[in-house]
Design goal:
Blueprint lengths: L4 E7 L2 H17 L4 E7 L2 H4 L5 H4 L7 H8 L5 E5 L11 E6 L7 E5 L16 E3 L3 H10 L4 E3 L5 H9 L5 E5 H6 L8 E2 L14 E6 L3 H8 L4 H17 L7 E7 L7 E9 L6 E9 L3 H14 L2 H12 L4
Parallel strand pairs: 1-2, 1-3, 6-7, 6-8
Antiparallel strand pairs: 3-10, 4-10, 5-8, 5-9, 11-12, 12-13
Helix pairs in contact: 9-10
This protein binds ligand PBG.
């Protein structure tokens, strides 16, 4: 492929740029002589900062502009935080590669005045900054004495708001903090018995055009099979349950025994926004068919009432409803 350039579309937040530079460097290492360019742009999700994420209700908030670049042939691939990539992709595009996942857990970050507290010992009424319905519902379920306030903007902006005293603590992805060199701000990793992480959290997804076999082969070298299987099970679970907006769905995946041969175990939960109802269950199966495990778990949760919870949420957060 002498003379060809691989064009990457990326968001331009600090975290997105760290991730995209990592992908660029790894691809350059794997393909000697490959020219790689990066086009960084803002997405809807970066521009609309005064509306709660859940109210915007639009999936693909952080991905559509990047996808448009590929569809008009101004970029060949887009690098996303996998958790921001909807499970339904536009016609003509595909998820071409899933990279090795960092710790997918959520992390508690506290204001300095709470440095001697833990999630379980935060004071009555402490203000938790999060824009995720998943984090909100699960924390409310376990800690009904906490209060919740929406926080928007990129990770650095959120930390500035925390330090300025707008919140007592934030819940952020450990992976994002680590990639930004801010792992030192992690006060506590949140245990999966308290809160399950988002689908795909901690992994990168590289999207490309369907049928672009040369590009697909180039990016596949960055695929991490155990991560990909875990994330495909998680994404099938979400796809089978979701309607049209951000929903309180959390997951956790692990292998029984050996990563290469063990069964894949998926834990999933759906919660009501008040945290009063929380349905959680587990499914397992051969790791070679991760999507079947995800779909199976979704059906199990539906049988236990997840459908009603999700219907209520779709009705309540739809902007014009
Ligand atoms: N929606 C924002 C977003 N998208 C990906 C990450 C973190 C990195 C990751 O989860 O891979 C974050 C910030 C956060 O949730 O703290």
């Amino acid at each position: 492929m002498a003379g060809s350039t691989l064009r990457i579309a990326s968001r331009r937040s600090q975290l997105a740029m760290v991730q995209t530079h990592w992908v660029r460097d790894e691809l350059a290492r794997a393909h000697a002589g490959l020219e790689i360019s990066i086009e960084a742009m803002a997405t809807q999700g970066d521009k609309i900062l005064d509306v709660a994420l859940a109210k915007i209700g639009d999936k693909g908030l952080f991905t559509k502009e990047l996808e448009a670049q590929m569809l008009v042939d101004r970029a060949d691939i887009a690098v996303h935080s996998l958790k921001d990539l909807p499970t339904n992709l536009p016609e003509g595009l595909m998820l071409g590669c899933i990279t090795e996942r960092e710790d997918p857990a959520d992390a508690l970050v506290v204001h300095a005045k709470h440095s001697d507290r833990s999630l379980a010992t935060l004071p009555e009424g402490a203000v938790v900054g999060t824009s995720s319905l998943r984090r909100l519902a699960q924390l409310r379920h376990h800690f009904p004495h906490l209060t919740f306030k929406d926080v928007r903007g990129n990770v650095i902006t959120r930390l500035e708001k925390l330090d300025a005293g707008e919140f007592d603590c934030l819940i952020l992805a450990a992976a994002g903090l680590g990639r930004l060199g801010l792992g030192g701000r992690i006060h506590e990793l949140i245990d999966p018995s308290i809160s399950l992480h988002a689908v795909g959290q901690g992994a990168l997804g590289i999207e490309c055009r369907e049928g672009d076999e040369a590009v697909l082969a180039q990016i596949k070298v960055l695929e991490h099979l155990p991560t990909a299987r875990r994330c495909l099970a998680e994404r099938a679970f979400l796809h089978e349950l979701e309607g049209g907006c951000q929903v309180p769905i959390g997951v956790n995946t692990r292998f029984s025994g050996d990563d290469d041969t063990g069964e894949l175990i998926l834990t999933g939960m759906v919660a009501s926004l008040d945290g009063l109802r929380l349905i959680r269950d587990e499914a397992r199966g051969p790791q070679e068919d991760p999507e079947a495990i995800g779909r199976g778990l979704a059906h199990r949760l539906r049988e236990q009432g997840a459908g009603e919870i999700l219907e209520e949420i779709f009705a309540s957060v739809r902007p014009e409803a």
